[in-house]
Design a protein that fits this description.
Elements: H1 13-26, H2 37-41, H3 44-57, E1 65-71, E2 77-82, H4 85-103, H5 119-132, E3 135-140, H6 144-147, H7 150-158, H8 164-175, E4 178-179, E5 185-186, H9 200-219, E6 224-228, E7 231-236, H10 239-255, E8 266-269, E9 285-287, E10 290-298, E11 304-312, H11 314-326, H12 337-355, H13 364-381, H14 389-402
Parallel strand pairs: 1-4
Antiparallel strand pairs: 1-2, 3-7, 3-8, 4-5, 6-7, 9-10, 10-11
Helix pairs in contact: 1-3, 1-4, 7-9, 11-13, 13-14
Length: about 425
């Protein structure tokens, strides 16, 4: 696709070292060569020199990505492509080189995997928008990372990246094969960018910048939207506008070799006390692990009114609870409750800080589920309680009274 030139590529050893530090901070598992970060570090100086030499001479070629299947909330699985440590560093070099340039082009309403932007900022923006706009297009792009068209992506890069050597390396990453657990290689056929690659989020943001963001800003300036990677919410003022815009989005995505997941894409009516009842439309949608829906809100005078806000979604609760089940605490009678706290507290801090940002009390059901797993552990460890859940919960309450900070969530929730 591009001419290979004999001139050296302007990649310095310092750029490679800085890329390594970023990859190291993000950790990650081994690729197809089974080389972990720890193994790579055993001969770090030489490994980085070899990588720099190949990158700067144009002779760098990536290895296949390791295919990993990750369960989704709906029972299906999504595929991650895990590059080798060396390839992650190489991708980070190019990402750091390109990102400042592309960041000046991206829309402010795009939040996913961008510097100084977060999922909470995206959620907060949606919270603000649903107060102003009564209608939402809850979009789901079907298999986005698998459908990204290579030719169109390079066309988008051409608008901002004159350097052929950059596009050569990106093309090599796009076209690289994936290897499953049985060793079978699958070759890309002009589409797809591996979820799991360091540079994939930047490339996906560029693709959707042209496929969607520019459509909305140029032709529909009166609507609002929030995008986190391929997770998109569009806010409209009325029903007609929502239906017309959904059709326009559907057509635009088809032009860009993408398609909506029609089963998951829907128009939602954000009913609150100011808006009339509409039984012909759904009234809730999920975004970044939260469910937005009508909720009863206490007013200053002590009464209640119907608001529209978010709390942790049922899918998120199910996913977290499944992970707790998988720990099989009830079978670990040799460990102490302090051992459990040491293991669980980092998880619980992350869960509460993310999902409890707006309403900590909305996590009470989830916390009760954890205490149920903990009570099972108590009954298995202390046979003298004779299988009585009441006694197990009483035992936990006594521990909490004596050691109120043992579990992070005990400092926020009064009851067991």
């Amino acid at each position: 696709m591009f001419e290979t030139k004999s001139t050296t590529v302007p990649i310095t050893q310092q750029m490679v070292k800085e890329a390594y530090r970023k990859v190291k901070s993000n950790q990650g598992s081994a690729g197809v060569d089974k080389e972990s970060l720890e193994m790579y570090q055993a001969d770090l100086s030489n490994n980085l020199y070899v990588l720099w030499n190949r990158l700067s001479s144009g002779s760098y070629f990536p290895k296949p990505v390791r295919e990993v299947l990750i369960p989704k909330a709906n029972g299906s699985r999504r595929t991650l492509g895990i590059p080798t440590v060396s390839d992650r560093i190489a991708q980070q070099v190019i990402k750091s080189y390109l990102e400042p340039r592309l960041e000046t082009e991206f829309h402010d309403n795009s939040y996913g995997y961008r510097p100084l932007k977060s999922a909470h900022q995206a959620v907060e923006h949606v919270r603000e928008n649903v107060r102003q706009y009564a209608w939402v297009i809850d979009m789901d792009i079907k298999s986005f990372f698998d459908e990204v068209n290579h030719e169109l992506l390079i066309k988008a890069l051409d608008c901002h990246v004159p350097e052929n050597w950059v596009k050569i390396y990106i093309t090599r990453w796009l076209e690289i094969s994936s290897q499953n657990k049985d060793g079978k290689l699958t070759t890309k056929e002009g589409k797809g960018t591996p979820q799991g690659g360091v540079i994939s989020p930047l490339l996906s943001n560029l693709y959707l910048h042209y496929a969607l963001d520019k459509l909305l800003t140029k032709h529909y300036p009166n609507v609002a939207f929030v995008r986190y990677a391929d997770d998109v919410v569009v806010h409209c003022s009325n029903e007609q506008e929502a239906n017309e815009l959904l059709n326009a989005i559907r057509q635009r995505l088809q032009e860009c070799k993408l398609r909506l997941n029609e089963e998951k894409t829907k128009i939602v009516y954000c009913q609150d006390y100011r808006r009339k009842e509409r039984k012909d439309y759904r009234k809730k949608f999920d975004f970044l692990g939260f469910t937005f829906k009508p909720v009863s809100v206490a007013s200053k005078n002590g009464g209640l009114f119907l608001g529209y806000n978010c709390s942790i979604s049922q899918n998120s609760q199910t996913r977290i609870n499944t992970k707790w089940k998988d720990l099989k605490l009830r079978r670990q009678s040799t460990i102490t409750i302090q051992d459990i706290a040491t293991k669980i507290n980092p998880q619980m801090i992350g869960i509460i800080r993310y999902y409890g940002k707006y309403k900590v009390w909305s996590l009470q059901k989830l916390i009760r589920q954890f205490h149920f797993h903990l009570a099972k552990w108590v009954l298995n460890k202390y046979k003298g309680l004779k299988g009585s859940y009441n006694k197990a919960y009483k035992w936990l309450a006594e521990i909490k009274e004596s050691y109120p900070t043992m579990f992070y969530h005990w400092t926020l929730f009064k009851t067991i």
